[in-house]
Write a structure and sequence with these properties.
D-amino Acid Aminotransferase, Chain A, domain 1, Phosphorylase Kinase, domain 1, binds uridine-5'-diphosphate, 5 helices, 31% strand, 5-stranded antiparallel β-sheet, alpha+beta, 2 domains
Length: 237
């Protein structure tokens, strides 16, 4: 493990803090145990959540990397910290869905759990002020978020990532219902950035269809703690 000195805090988001390092192209990404946001609902604080987020993201980014998908992940530095490449982030949340759930069920009136004949890809404009609205290619263009070519490449990578992640999770008895990726530019190259954890993915147990990981209803912190830990073990052990 390389000795990397933590520099100035660059950014603090809901789940993570980015610090500069001595190397202008590299950052330290530190995961938090509880999200900080001004939401109406109290955040669920799980012991060691930050460490599990770090471990799960490292495992999944490593898997993508080994299968030819570039990500910002370089190496794990400590329990809650990883070394990443500095990206110029594209302000889009790219969601890939294999089964109907969440906002798709509501928007299209489809039953939760319906398998999709082909994966569905959506993008949302990352804007807290606007509540991350759903956007199409024309909106992306109008907002100047990404070029047509970049959008095409983003989709291609997102579907390829789905094709890599699906069997990985199936082997661990997990249904990958949907997940969110974020992309950035590094030296003109497109890379997957941010995190890949239960906080941005929907995982169900393959046989019982029990919801694993983040409890979106936030009704039971104890259950969320148990299922988050369960996902961590299935991915990281
Ligand atoms: N997602 C996310 N961040 C967001 C919105 C969605 O990571 O700001 C993820 C979410 O965890 C889920 C997928 O994208 O795995 C699809 O989310 P959906 O649109 O169904 O919204 P939700 O029901 O999660 O609010």
């Amino acid at each position: 493990m390389a000795a990397v000195r933590r520099g100035r805090k660059l950014f603090e988001g809901k789940w993570k803090i980015l610090f500069e390092t001595e190397h202008p192209d590299r950052l330290i990404q530190r995961f938090k145990d509880a999200p900080t946001f001004a939401g109406a609902r109290a955040p669920v604080k799980l012991a060691r959540r930050g460490a599990m987020k770090n471990g799960i993201s490292a495992a999944l980014f490593g898997l993508l990397h080994r299968n030819g998908i570039p990500t910002h992940f370089l190496e794990v530095l400590s329990d809650r910290e990883m070394l990443v490449r500095r990206l110029e982030m594209i302000r889009l949340e790219v969601v890939v869905r294999n089964l109907v759930a969440g906002s798709l069920a509501k928007r299209l009136g489809m039953e939760v759990g319906t398998p999709l004949a082909a994966p569905v890809l959506e993008h949302y404009y990352k804007s807290d002020a606007l509540g991350d609205p759903f956007v199409n290619d024309f909106h992306v263009n109008a907002l100047g978020l990404a070029s047509g070519e970049e959008l095409k490449a983003i989709r291609e990578v997102a579907f390829r990532a789905n094709g890599i992640l699906l069997p990985f999770f199936a082997e661990r008895e997990i249904l990958l219902v949907d997940f969110k990726l974020e992309f950035g530019r590094h030296d003109g190259r497109l890379m997957v950035g941010d995190e890949l954890t239960p906080d941005g993915c929907r995982f169900w147990d393959r046989s019982t269809r029990e919801r694993l990981g983040k409890d979106r209803t936030r009704r039971s912190p104890a259950r969320e703690a148990a299922t988050y830990q369960e996902v961590f073990q299935r991915i990281c052990s």
